[in-house]
Amino acid sequence: MSTPLGFVRSTVGRKVMMAVTGLMLVGFVAGHATGNLLVFKGPDALNAYGALLKSSAVVLWTVRLVLLTAVGVHIWAALTLIRLNQVSRPVAYAKHVPQASTLAARLMRAGGLLLLAFIVFHLLHLTTGTIHPGYTFSHTDVYSNVVSSFQVPWLALVYIVAMVALLAHLSHGVWSFFQTMGWNHPRFNTARRVFATVVALIVSLGFIAIPSAILGGMLR
Q1: Domain span including residue 108
Q2: Cα dihedral sign, 198-170-97-188
Q3: 161: in domain
Q4: Exposed/middle/buried for residue 96 (C-beta within 10 Å: 0-12, 13-18, 19+)
Q5: What pLDDT digit, counting tens, does each position of 38-58 carry?
Q6: Per-residue model confidence as pLDDT tens digits over 169-194
Q7: What is the CATH number of the domain that holds 101?
Q8: Could you tell me the pTM of the whole model?
Q9: 33 assigned to some structural domain
Q10: Nearest Cα to Cα of residue 208 among 169, 153, 160
């Protein structure tokens, strides 16, 4: 722990790295949801937002590299911590009954894998336009891409299911951040749980509102 390498190799260090990169990704998805909700203001607003994001290649690729690094470190820390836990307990419990963990906590691994697969799909779908079933992809008309996409029921459903997984992942992740950083106290744990749940709900429902509104015919 006295050196950077020692910190990275330690269990505590990996938990801190996972928590910090997780916080970075929470900030990103919150901002991403806010930007995407401009779809409700119409084509001009969303397309202007999309053009702004691409206005500087240097800034765009710097942000992308930072995010990809954060995702990579987050996944690496999670996998190595899981492995360390398996090594420390090579024989599983004969019967394991969760005492205090929530459903979101117990589904973190499966949810994380689902979200990783979704991220790849999302990039191929609305970033590169490699996947565009039933419509013509445009690199400038973001609004038409979004609306055309979510008029395809199965595609909208993929996004909604992924955002439900995000809800569970964020809810436990935000709560765990305070735990990992040592910022927890019995007096504030209930408020911490409420805060994590509210953040997760706001972000996830913000995303879910878009395909739901398009499927319902509110946006065309």
Answers
A1: 4-215
A2: negative
A3: yes
A4: exposed
A5: 999 999 999 999 999 999 999
A6: 999 999 999 988 888 778 888 899 99
A7: 1.20.1300
A8: 0.86
A9: yes
A10: 160
